Amino acid sequence: MFDIGFSELLLVGVIGLLVLGPERLPGAVRTASLWIGRIRRQFHEIKTEVEREIGADEIRAQLRNEAIMDELRQSREALESSARDIRAGVEASPQARTDAVPAPEAGGATGTKAVP
Question: How far apart are CA 25 and CA 13, in angstroms?
């Protein structure tokens, strides 16, 4: 997180020793380490919560996508069923038409009128 090397830590320690003195420096280090630990725990909890929320959003999106895919699948099945019904109706129609058309009369031409 922070890029602090050994030389920077040593400098901070020497300045702390000069400012606080040898009696109060160990207590100040303990207090600082407690605060740093609390801050790290808070960051970790926030990070975990954000990851959990992101995971929940991904799950919601996945469930929504699955619902959409189910709707599309049902629509596709309905269209295929309708197409089969239409094909069956078209295949049955020519047979019904040939049965319904009357046979031409003997000796007469179809579609012509008799001239007086």
Answer: 9
Backbone angles phi, psi at 2, to 5 degrees: -105, 145
pTM score > 0.85 for this model?
no
Q: How far apart are CA 112 and CA 66, in angstroms?
A: 65
Q: Which pLDDT does position 113 carry in this prediction?
A: 54
Question: Which residues are within 8 A (CB) of 16 and not within 5 positions of it... i.e. 6 or more apart?
Answer: 25, 28, 29
What's the per-residue H, E or C state across 12-56? HHHHHHHHHHHHHHHHHHHHHHHHHHHHHHHHHHHHHHHHHHHHH
| pLDDT tens for each residue of 4-17 | 788 988 898 899 88
Report residue 105's pLDDT band, with 50, 70 and 90 as the boundaries. low
